[in-house]
Amino acid sequence: MANEKVGVVIVGAGASGSVFAAVLAKAGKKVVVLESGPDWQMSDLISSDIWGRRVKTAGAPFLLEGKNPFGYSYQSGWGVGGAALHYFANFPRLLPNDFKVKSEHNRAHDWPISYEDVAPFYDKVAQDIGVSGDAKAEEIWRPAGQPYPMPPMKTFRHGDVWLKGFEAVGIRMVPAAVGMNSTEFKGRPACIYDGWCHVGCPIGALANPNITYLAEARKAGAEVRPLSTVTRVLTNQPGTKITGVEYYDQKKERQVQEASVVVLAAWAAQNPRILLNSATDKHPNGLVNSNGLVGKYMMAHFNSGTWAMFDEDVQNHMGTTGAQYMSYDRYSKTSHKGAFGSSFITAGSALKTSDLGGFANARLDLFGPDLQLFMKRGARGLTRFGTFGEAMPNIENRVELASDKDEFGMPLGRIIHTYDQDAIAVWNANFDEGLKIAKATGAKEVWSARGNMPTIHLMGGTIMGTSTENSVVNSYGQTHQVPNLYIAGPGIFATAGASNPTYTIFALSLRGAEQLASNWSTVAG
Ligand SMILES: Cc1cc2nc3c(=O)[nH]c(=O)nc-3n(C[C@H](O)[C@H](O)[C@H](O)COP(=O)(O)OP(=O)(O)OC[C@H]3O[C@@H](n4cnc5c(N)ncnc54)[C@H](O)[C@@H]3O)c2cc1C
Ligand code: SF4
């Protein structure tokens, strides 16, 4: 029967939800995954910027406010696989310094765990879904771990041309760690370097959840119910236990799915929206929000991009939308004078015409014959590298409910987001250094990709900590206030670091799911 009580309901079939589904289904639990978008198949992934739009974000919009409104549409997902169906799969880790910002600098928060707690799960995820890279080379910046299961990806001229510039300013670059196949892996083929990862890899060389953890979950008996939008988490009368969720099915009819445990894995901005909409007389400010911290401390990365035009053919159509090279040489929180926060450098992603970092964004000031000439030269000689920066958590950056409602009568979410002076200073310092690097490459022309300060990788909103005093969840994603409710994804990060978050999302989800499986009877009751 469709809505018979199950062991666990997972809300969202993306990066984090797929891990919980796999671990719990393999542990013999009855798992139902409710996913608001469609059940995408590999045949839906078409290598075209226009067709690729279909798999990008959809559903009720967020209202965007603050001085740096959050550009979420590019990075959130919709449908099985979530945003990770079509991510760039750059897989850097956080570093040990990310876990101790408060104790080392008296800023922001400490995580309740250290790098050593997460490290074994980084290694495990790499073996589970396939990571290519050179772990030994990375160990100049982090404690040693296991080697990656595949060697680094191939490099191309548009990545290699930057190396001279990095060397000139003393920055060491190593092969980028990516969730892509440099060789065949577990029956999935090696990458063919045609650069269409951002609309989903049709051959399966990109580690998207549908062909990794979610496939394992389905094989172990998990049921995935697409076009099912969760609007509320339900509690028992005293408000001490979760009893299930309310959702709207594909006919837009209200349903209740009862479960012993609920895992919210609907992405950093959606999870607080659902919690705030789940208020009852016992939880008047929203579920697990007696401390007012649900939706608070939203964080983003920003990127300082530097472009260069070469006379030679740099093969910019080749490669992947992930990076060829990466560096943590500016990862210390105090790398740049007068600016606080880490920076993480990547170089060498394939260029497509549109989308983030695409050709169309390279020179917005050009029109007519000048644009035509630029495009002619750029088709062969254009390349770009980028430096991500870290913003510190600020309680004012938040998700809250608006008065407007979506088609299910659920209030829209509003994301309010403003960068502080440190973030702006880190952004500027990385532009300055970017130009120095570019000039030292011998490129014909170099320029900064300055526009509105970007907001990339939304994190926070349900942060982890030691108790209800300072956080919403513990280090496993289990809420402090209602133990049979878990939250997964970048929302539980206590600070943002500067490295792309999804490898850490997978690792933390694996750690949380394993803890839940081994404490099942205590948690599920
Ligand atoms: C183009 C692009 C490039 C990226 N590149 C990188 C990269 O190189 N490296 C990196 O680390 N990260 C990258 N990311 C980010 C990465 O994909 C996300 O960090 C990651 O997918 C977040 O995981 P999640 O589980 O929180 O959310 P998602 O993977 O987005 O999954 C959330 C799921 O929940 C569903 N959902 C939402 N609301 C509801 C609801 N009410 N009921 C039911 N279901 C719901 C959504 O439809 C979605 O499928 C990229 C993202 C994009 C789009
Ligand atoms: S570049 Fe590689 S990973 Fe990306 S879409 Fe092509 S084959 Fe897939």
Notes on the protein architecture:
The chain is α/β, with parallel strands linked by helices. The chain is 22% helix and 19% strand. The protein contains twelve helices and 17 strands. Strands 1, 2, 5, 6, 7, 8 and 17 form a seven-stranded mixed β-sheet that branches. Helix 1 (15-26) runs parallel beside helix 11 (502-518). The longest helix has 19 residues, at 421-439. The protein is globular, with a radius of gyration of 22 Å. The model has no long low-confidence stretch (mean pLDDT 96).
| Mean pLDDT over the residues | 96
Q: Helical content, roughly? A: 10-25%
Oligomerization status of the protein chains? single chain
Number of DSSP helices? 12
- Based on CA atoms alone, the radius of gyration comes out at 22 Å
N- and C-termini, Cα separation: 23 Å
Q: How much of the polypeptide forms β-strand, as a percent range?
A: 15-25%
Q: So what's the overall shape?
A: globular
Largest sheet: 7 strands, mixed
The count of DSSP E runs of length 2 or more, i.e. the number of strands, is 17
Order of helices and strands: EHEEHHHHHEHEEEEHEEEHEEEHEEEHH
Q: Which structural category do the helix and sheet elements fall into?
A: alpha/beta
List segments where confidence is low: pLDDT < 50 over at least 5 consecutive residues: none
